[in-house]
């Protein structure tokens, strides 16, 4: 991770923490969620969620979008209509959350920050409204391609290296994303329908609680002993097909919890599971 990335991390002593006091999901404890790709059905109202870390995480998202737009945002011309459709769908979903206040040209978030409704910049607007990162995957002859994203909390990957590439290329150099997993994931993307949402979750052990951790494909990851890990990072990943454009919205809601906050059963299962420490 670069020094620029490190300088953008919030201090843990900030008024609103980016951490959660307990795990929202523990995928390593159930075979059906830990086995790749581990997708499960999801109710429509479960698409976009917020948690106790909303204020702290959104403050960091605002800072990243303002100061490092080049790292966290990308939108190819062919994805503009899908991005606009995604924003409209998300705004409709957020109206059911009474903590959001809507007016004609702006939205006040639950943390009382007011966000202008800029439909000319749909993913940036969306990235300041919801706690999840949003990636747009559009079908092509080579499978689904990443054509747009607002990605503030990457887990050791860099958006500029992945934009415009299909699923298999995006997951380089992830060793567990083999040809069998790739085929199953592509079938999932091909079969998903607008009225059938899906979700999955992953987990990583971490030394530090940073959310913004970009890494280029050729960079070396710092190795450290498993016992030095202090945090668990999970991603709640959802899949939703847009009814008009046909793009698949891949949304990533990231949570960080200190390992010491896990229950005894969660820690025992964690010790037995193959959870990477990165």
Explain what this protein looks like in three dimensions.
There is one protein chain. The protein is an alpha+beta fold. The chain has one domain. It is built from ten helices and ten strands. The strands form two sheets. It has a seven-stranded antiparallel sheet. It has a three-stranded antiparallel sheet with strand order 3-4-5, with no helix packed on it. The longest helix has 15 residues. The radius of gyration is 18 Å and the shape is globular. The N terminus is likely disordered.
Topology:
Elements: H1 3-7, H2 31-34, E1 40-42, H3 54-67, H4 69-72, E2 73-75, H5 80-94, E3 101-102, E4 106-108, E5 114-116, H6 122-127, E6 133-138, E7 145-150, H7 159-162, H8 167-170, H9 179-191, E8 197-206, E9 231-241, E10 248-258, H10 264-272
Antiparallel strand pairs: 1-8, 2-7, 3-4, 4-5, 6-7, 6-10, 8-9, 9-10
Segments where pLDDT lies below 50 for 5+ residues?
1-7, 10-15
Number of helices: 10
Radius of gyration: 18 Å
Q: Can you give the mean pLDDT?
A: 90
What's the story with the biggest beta sheet? 7 strands, antiparallel
Summarize the structure.
Helix content is 28%, strand content 21%.
Using brief descriptors, characterize the structure shown.
alpha+beta; seven-stranded antiparallel beta sheet; three-stranded antiparallel beta sheet; 10 helices; 10 strands
């Amino acid at each position: 991770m670069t020094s620029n990335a490190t300088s953008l991390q919030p201090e843990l002593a900030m008024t609103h923490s980016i951490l959660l006091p307990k795990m929202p999901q523990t995928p390593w404890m159930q075979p059906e969620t830990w086995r790749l790709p581990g997708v499960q059905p999801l109710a429509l109202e479960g698409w976009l969620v917020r948690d106790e870390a909303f204020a702290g995480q959104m403050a960091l998202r605002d800072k990243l979008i303002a100061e490092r737009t080049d790292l966290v945002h990308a939108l190819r011309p062919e994805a503009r209509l899908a991005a606009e459709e995604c924003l409209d769908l998300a705004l409709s979903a957020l109206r059911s959350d009474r903590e959001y206040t809507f007016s004609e040209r702006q939205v006040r978030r639950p943390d009382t920050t007011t966000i202008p409704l800029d439909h000319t910049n749909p993913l940036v607007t969306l990235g300041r409204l919801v706690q999840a990162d949003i990636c747009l995957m559009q079908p092509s002859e080579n499978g689904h391609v990443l054509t747009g994203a607002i990605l503030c909390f990457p887990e050791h990957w860099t958006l500029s290296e992945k934009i415009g590439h299909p699923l298999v290329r995006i997951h380089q150099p992830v060793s567990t994303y083999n040809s069998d997993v790739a085929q199953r994931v592509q079938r999932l993307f091909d079969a998903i329908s607008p009225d059938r949402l899906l979700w999955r979750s992953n987990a990583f052990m971490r030394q530090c609680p940073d959310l913004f951790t970009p890494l280029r494909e050729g960079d070396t990851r710092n190795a450290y002993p498993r016992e030095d890990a202090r945090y668990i990072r999970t991603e709640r990943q959802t899949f939703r097909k847009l009814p008009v454009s046909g793009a698949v919205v891949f949304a990533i809601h990231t949570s960080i919890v200190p390992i010491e906050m896990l229950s005894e059963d969660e820690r025992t299962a964690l010790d037995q599971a193959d959870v990477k420490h990165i």
